[in-house]
Write a structure and sequence with these properties.
TIM Barrel, 8-stranded parallel β-barrel, 11 helices, 8 strands
């Protein structure tokens, strides 16, 4: 399957796939729904600070098992209605019936959100636990792609995994799953965060060799907390470079130095990815803007 050259329909704002396919790199940011009033304030401070950078789009995650469904929809709606940003809403299949999924998709359409990232999702409580499909739901991300694609004029994206999804048998299996999602209707992919640029190019080239040329945007997370990043890497199956771990643990009690190293590493990784032809960078912000703004400034500078 080939995406081809995206074109914007007159009178309609470009969708995420069209934005990614434009000349020059895109820069986008990922947020997650807050769990408290303090978290809500921090999120909107980050959104307003990063809005000034005029990103191509922003994404809002969907908690394991749909645990943040209402908050995800609320944040997405507010971004669509109260900011200049283009929101990309996450949607997962886990713990959802097809009817519930259709309701969420319909609500996104009602609030003017037409870009959705379709994910199978992690089991609630234990991301590494057994994945059990809802008895009236879907089993695979590609099924969710097909459901969204058949529900109206949506632009659907999917996840990609340079370090191989922890549930995949091997790299070839992972490539086959991504190609299947693209053939089901996905028009772009965004990767899980990673630290080795060669793993991104290996995945991108293998997918292209399989006849699927949808753009794959690398996800980059500037490290700001050693313990947090190691835990996230373990849960997601991301390979955490031993040398970087040693550097960070040596200064773990100095948050400013940790963040400085994180910005340096994220900048170097982003520069190399762009030099290798990546269509843009998707920053995983963890609802904080300072490190992301510093990396963005260095890339722009």
């Amino acid at each position: 399957m080939g995406l081809g050259t995206a074109s914007v329909i007159p009178g309609r704002a470009p969708d995420v796939a069209e934005l990614i396919s434009r000349p020059g790199p895109t820069f986008s940011f990922e947020f997650f729904p807050p769990k408290s009033d303090a978290g809500e304030a921090a999120l909107w401070q980050a959104i307003r600070e990063l809005e000034a950078l005029q990103p191509s789009f922003v994404s809002i995650t969907y908690g394991a098992g749909g645990s943040s469904r209402d908050r995800t929809i609320s944040v997405t709606e507010r971004i669509a209605q109260q900011t200049t940003l283009t929101p990309l809403a996450h949607l997962t299949a886990v713990n959802h019936s097809v009817e519930q999924l259709r309701n969420v998709i319909g609500h996104y359409a009602d609030i003017g959100v037409r870009d959705i990232l379709a994910l199978r999702g992690d089991p609630p409580g234990n991301p590494s636990g057994e994945w059990v499909a809802h008895p009236e739901g879907l089993r695979h991300a590609r099924d969710l792609v097909e459901l969204i694609d058949a529900s109206g004029s949506f632009c659907v994206g999917v996840a990609a995994f340079p370090d191989v999804h922890p549930r995949s048998v091997n790299f070839s299996s992972d490539v086959a799953h991504l190609v299947a999602k693209c053939r089901a209707g996905a028009r772009f992919a965004i990767t899980q965060f990673f630290f080795d640029w060669q793993r991104y190019t290996r995945l991108r080239d293998a997918v292209a060799a399989a006849g699927c040329d949808v753009p794959i945007v690398p996800g980059v997370m500037p490290v700001t907390n050693v313990v947090q990043i190691e835990r996230m890497a373990q849960l997601s199956g991301t390979s955490f470079p031993p040398e970087l771990a040693r550097r960070l643990h040596a200064v773990a009690d100095d948050p400013e130095t940790v963040a400085s190293i994180g910005v340096e590493v994220a900048t170097q990784l982003s520069q190399r990815l762009l030099a290798e032809g990546a269509p843009g960078i998707h920053f995983i912000t963890l609802n904080r803007s300072k490190a992301t703004r510093e990396v963005w400034a260095r890339l722009k500078g």
